[in-house]
Amino acid sequence: MGILKTFVLGGVHPAENKLSANAAIEAVPVPKQVIIPLGQNLGAPSKPIVKKGDQVKTGQLIAEASGFISANIHSPVSGTVLKIDQFIDVTGYKRPCVFIHVEGDEWDESIDRSDKLETHISLSSEEIVARVKASGIVGLGGATFPTSVKLMPPPGKKAEYLIINGVECEPYLTSDHRMMLEKGSEIIVGIQILMKALLVEKAIIGIENNKTDAINHLTELAKTDERIRVIALKVRYPQGGEKQLIKAALNREVPSGKLPIEVGCVVQNVSTAFAVYEAVQKNKPLFERVVTVTGKAVKKPSNFLVRIGTSTQDLIDAAAGLPESTGKVISGGPMMGKAITELDTPIVKGTSGILLMEKTESRRLVENPCIRCSRCTYACPMGLEPYLLTKAAKLGKLQMAEKEMIMDCIECGSCQYTCPSGIPLLDYLRLGKIKVGRAIRTRIKK
Amino acid sequence: MNKFTIAGSPHIHGDESTKKIMVGVVIALVPAMLVGVYYFGVDAIRVLLLAIIASLFFEWLIQKYLIKGTVTIMDGSALVTGILLAMNVPSNLPGWMVVVGALVAIGMAKMSFGGLGKNIFNPALVARVFLLVSFPVQMTSWPKPAPITDGLADVITGPTPLGIVKEGLGNGQTMSQLASELPSYTRDMVGNIGGSLGEVSVIAILLGGIYLLWKKIITWHIPVSILVTVGVFSGLMWGSNPEYYADPVFHLLTGGLMLGAIFMATDMVTSPMTKSGQIIFGFGVGLLTILIRLWGAYPEGVSFAILIMNAVVPLINKGFKPKRFGAKSGVPIKAKSL
Prior knowledge:
The complex is a heterodimer.
Chain A: E1 25-27, E2 33-37, E3 47-48, E4 55-56, E5 61-64, E6 73-74, E7 79-88, E8 94-102, H1 125-134, H2 147-150, E9 161-166, H3 175-182, H4 184-198, E10 202-208, H5 212-222, E11 228-233, H6 242-250, E12 265-269, H7 270-282, E13 288-294, E14 302-307, H8 312-318, E15 326-331, E16 338-340, E17 353-358, H9 359-362, H10 375-379, H11 386-395, H12 398-403, H13 414-418, H14 425-445
Parallel strand pairs in A: 1-14, 9-10, 9-12, 10-11, 13-17
Antiparallel strand pairs in A: 2-8, 3-5, 4-7, 5-6, 7-8, 13-14, 15-16, 15-17
Chain B: H1 18-40, H2 42-66, H3 77-87, H4 95-110, H5 123-134, H6 136-139, H7 161-170, H8 175-178, H9 185-190, H10 202-214, H11 221-240, H12 248-253, H13 257-264, H14 275-295, H15 302-319
């Protein structure tokens, strides 16, 4: 193997800690009750179409997209709708959720529940996009952007490459890794479906070199289709960021403020490709996903196949319980995940992992003065100057923050990870982004 | 109810801290300190200890009684300032002058700007230049190196190589006439020459520099840019008239250039934030150093050069931005103003 590809600017390499890499995907039992947040995707929350007392089947539509950037939600279980009420979701805010009492597990008849690999793609391009949209598929890497939107390039733009994100650069998380190992054939068909929908002839699967088994497995499977190429990437965070992955794979740079389609690329996660396979070939909407449950003190680090709406507590129990020493519970990975307070927070489409961190790892660092060491600047994968943006955000200098391109920040946290002074740079950057974003929106309205 | 910590991402942190960086700098300074002690004996130890203790003391005094804030003398920054101050003065400097130097470094150059990270000028160099201007005789009476293993001898003072050249050329002598008075390059490398406590041995300083690069405390941009500029510029002048200008190797090996390029100019607080800016900064330091050495009143110009470039750093930071992702050829995309 020659020199491994990677992106150019910045980046860090935190301890990988892939504790659950060898744990095969295991289905957790369907819970007694599920709580399904209506805002699970980037964009507008979904609009419920069921009411209290309604009987639902597994896979039945219960909430529909309420705009262009929105997604359908299907019932992950069969049973009775208890209520539609506010409940704390992963953001820490109370949001409307559908509560369903589980009775049996009766699936919608139209879903093909067999394990048989369906390789023949009979749907047309438009039908595929429509099916993906109807199935409520969103980006499963964590950003939860509605997949169908990405499959419809704006007028005048044409996709050249489909890039499949198997990078999984977040430490600890292994759900994509396990999917590639166990559902490789389905993922390849999923990729072919996505290529048909996008009318592209070239697909690249990017995988970091710490998953050699997945690289070898998919390379072997991709031999049947010469349009699909697997490339091994050097382990480096945040390589799973769309812009970084495109840079690493094709050495193309998405211009500031633009989408990947600008350089002829559409990026989809491997698990999303699997969801697309299930939706198109098996008519199965997205109502379950693989979630890694891990942490240094977790007795049984696992990868679980989970119905959406299952509580976090149920997953922790399935991984042999909450360790005494847990100080922080994170939904997602340690670099970009969200700390949650309540263990009954439901699993949503975007939950890639549950990370239980030790008390000793959970304390906030003491913030010391900036010593202008430039490490944040060296680490920034977008070529920004986090120390400067932080200062601008603190002082409310929004004009300066915008000029210094604060809106390009992808919130990867590399700057804060390297800061020797323990400054919560990303907290200030988020604050600045919110304020600048607001200012830009008011300007556009005028 | 569970009590879990809530914080924004990222939830993990690299292994770095201010203290680690400072300790790293101190370790990198050890070889040069040892050489200083070897050639200048007990006096070197005296100056080192005085500078360190005085720096820590003044930082404590100012933080505790003047600012009435938190005392942070354990972060290692005052320790580094103290050592660097000692490295930049002759080892026979009277003790009270060392203490005055520490007061200037900590009180004037660091704390009056707001403490760690806020100062514009390198504290140890501000103190050195303050002492040089205030006490020119004591600051330029260099002890002759006498290995500590030879036992305690009377301290004899002698000139530095740069001093010999400056004075000799000033008196109308040529470089070939001065050659016999100058120490060999081997002696310059080892440190068996007159000069400030920590600047004499090129080898010891380079060892420290390699350690700093290996530990990623500094990047190569500033030192390389300074040394290349000095080498090229002095080489051009030497090429034009080898009898009137010293050769580039001489300029690279003597005086405070190595110490300045590797330890003083790379001070994070007072150097530019981007790599392109650091190269410009190093170019400025190198150019000014040679200008002062060749045509200035002082034989040595590294301290002045670094301090002058320190003043330009905010401007360099404004002009030299990192290469932005998605911008063409490093030019930042202009955003519309609010």
